[in-house]
Design brief:
The complex is a heterodimer of chains A (321) and B (329).
Chain A (H helix, E strand, L loop, with lengths): L13 H6 L7 H12 L2 H18 L1 H8 L11 E2 L5 E2 L22 H37 L1 H15 L3 H11 L5 H29 L2 H8 L4 H37 L11 H8 L8 H28 L5
Antiparallel strand pairs in A: 1-2
Chain B lengths: L1 H28 L4 H6 L5 H10 L6 H14 L1 E3 L6 E3 L6 E2 L4 E2 H36 L4 H14 L3 H15 L15 H35 L2 H8 L4 H26 L1 H12 L4 H11 L2 H29 L1 H5 L1
The chains are: A mainly alpha (321), B mainly alpha (329).
Chain lengths: 321, 329
Amino acid sequence: MSLTSLGAQEPLDDSQLLLLPAGPGSQSAWRVGWTRFRRDPVALASLIVIGLLIVMAVLAPVLTAINGHPPDAEYQNHLDPLLGGLPSGSVGGVSGSFWFGLEPGTGRDLFSMIVYGARVSLFVSVSATIVTVVVATLMGITAGFFGGWIDTIISRLMDLLLAFPSLIFMIALVAVLPSVPRLLLLIIILSVFGWPYLGRIVRGETMSLREREFVEAARAMGAPVRYTLLRELLPNLLTPIIVTSMLTVPTYITAEAGLSFLGLGIEPPTPSWGSMLANSLNWYATDPWYFIFPGFFLFLAVFSFNMAGDGLQRALDPRGD
Amino acid sequence: MAGFLLRRILGMLIVLLCLLAVTFIIFYVFPANPARDICGKGCTAATVASIDRQLGLNKPLWAQFGQYVSGIFTGRRFGQGSHLVACNFPCFGYSYQDNLPVSTLILQRLPVTASIAVGAAILWLAGGVTIGAVAALKKNTWVDRVVTATSLVGLALPVFLVAIVLLFLLTAKLGVLPDPSYTSIFVNPGAFFTGMIQPWIALAMVYAAVYARFTRAKLIEAMGEQYITTARAKGLRERRTVVHHGLRSAITPVITILGMDFGGLLGGAVIVETVYGLPGIGQLFLQAVDKVDIPVVTGCTLLAGFFVIAANLIVDLVYASLDPRVRLA
């Protein structure tokens, strides 16, 4: 029996709920979700694009070995000194050897730079998302389940962090903490300012779940708190956590690119999409391809994570069609 | 209403104090030698010692914090010897690198940033709400689908990318707009608009997409309410029904996100000012970060935080005056 056959819009009464073989979080609810996700062409295509981007990032050394251009090698002989260092040929120097052309001025291979840039972008955003999910889940469940003064402290902390102008604080922190490795600093800063969004959702969900019969039953049977949290509450929180984390990745991708754009991301010569776009400001009128390639990949990454996240939300929402 | 107002203002003051404390810790406790950092590059030992004395860095932390907070409200004196400068309310510190109080530096740059922020907000609010409302009223037609698809693309476009594309298309390729620059609106309104239109569009693009989606969802919800049926049943013209009954209730939550977005706009301004080379607070902030001019960095950070908190307060007040239920909560 699928959830759809029950008539999604009609509220269920208790007797019908008892007939449901699976609540959210159980094996078959995930299967229903996956079946729905597969039927959503945009979401499926986005997931495939994300997969390709991840493969591209992981295989960056292999890909640059295939085209034979390390990301830091400068091919000055393919630049035109008469044009102030623009790549020779049309479309920013695109050729069979330089698939995306060359970086004006230095003559580095744009394809190699973009592939390595994907590494930075995805590594930072995915790592920060993992930290965010762990912190937000711990804090959210704790606040929502225990309530009282614990809830007050955590909730106020979340309110306070949400009231902070995060980009400004991120920039300022990078300035005062020059000794911390930039990659680590980026992940920490993004998570510190990012977790309250998910934390609030988890807290709210936990508070409403806490009052439900199955949690009450577990407590009545004398289940330890740890069991109740991990086996009763957490499985029911997975849907909002997964959906929100899928939508957190693109905001971190944008933030990392933004900080790199301002010269506060990963240090050169390590290529990143944001710093490439910043450099392209010197060449936008003469060599638009230099901003088109990294810009397109940045857009593609953010767009596909957004679409996949939306698709997941639709697929896992039991009220959906 | 008075009680509500009092509670809100009290809450705001507490958040503001926390913001001050966090900012103070970050900039005056984290660094090993704050006086050295504050003084900047190429600074003599004598100056460092005098900054140490003026800021009371040898005193306990809480005393330093007290001095720092009271300085904001009552002003302080900075500088040395013949170069003694009074830093009046609101004193956010003194830039030893520019030899000016931070508030003066910020005030000089304020018109540029304010012009960017206000213009962009008007553009995205008008654009986003109109587009969203049209999509909601033409629900499930091709118009709606085009709006939905476009806003999804808009959501995935970072401000700096839009800004570069605009520069390329409008300035380099078509030549319809000059390189963006700031001219005071009082000096030359024409130059003001042609110089600012690109920063406005770049900032407004992402926000307009958010607002269009939000307005669409809220208006569709509102148009399904029973009071809309009532309004139609009593023979009210459709236009009036939509504007006075539907849109009015749909727009209230839009005000909430407007307040929060406007408060956080300084972050967006940093990026837009960087792309277009506009001399606003964002540029001041970035240059200060680059030069490690800590008093200026601190001042800008506090200003940004103050904007967010103040915007939240204003939103609460507007909301409470629109919706009586909020006041009682």
